[in-house]
């Protein structure tokens, strides 16, 4: 779970979430099987049940190579999105909220944390494939534009458009010269010592014994 305010990520939003929303919601990267089950439950409730998307089109073979974000309110999973990584851009996908949380500020909280992580990884742009009918919504939510010269296309019975999203530059973007212990920490938790940091003491004791 993220513990810091996503100052950089919030800059990608056209209007920030109310400050109190960051206390009401929790956002985390899905790291466990239980986390992924919650992601699947939310997407199944909306995309499969509400939008009648075929199972094999919704769960498309990309979930185990993506980073998933999980939004909770009062401990209850209410939203999710996923990001996939390419050479010089990231791709925003599968943004979804349960009906009980639509129109609330949780979406902006989740997006701000997502943009923060994307920026920290050094990306400055993302692409998204959005349902064409939702362009007015996304164009008022974060800094984006329709990609010029790209025609609408269809899949899973909906018309889609491609957008480019501007990601703010992070002053502490990760590079290959980072401390090696930082790089091996869990995704998004680079500033907190991880389990492998703690293993250093054990390794030092073994060297001393030798």
Automatic annotation (TrEMBL):
Secretion signal, residue range per the UniProt entry: none
Record-given protein name: N-acetyltransferase domain-containing protein
Source species, domain of life: Bacteria
Organismal lineage: Bacteria, Pseudomonadati, Pseudomonadota, Alphaproteobacteria, Hyphomonadales
Domain N-acetyltransferase: 25-164
A single MF term (Gene Ontology): acyltransferase activity, transferring groups other than amino-acyl groups
SUPFAM superfamilies: Acyl-CoA N-acyltransferases (Nat)
Organism of derivation: Hyphomonas beringensis
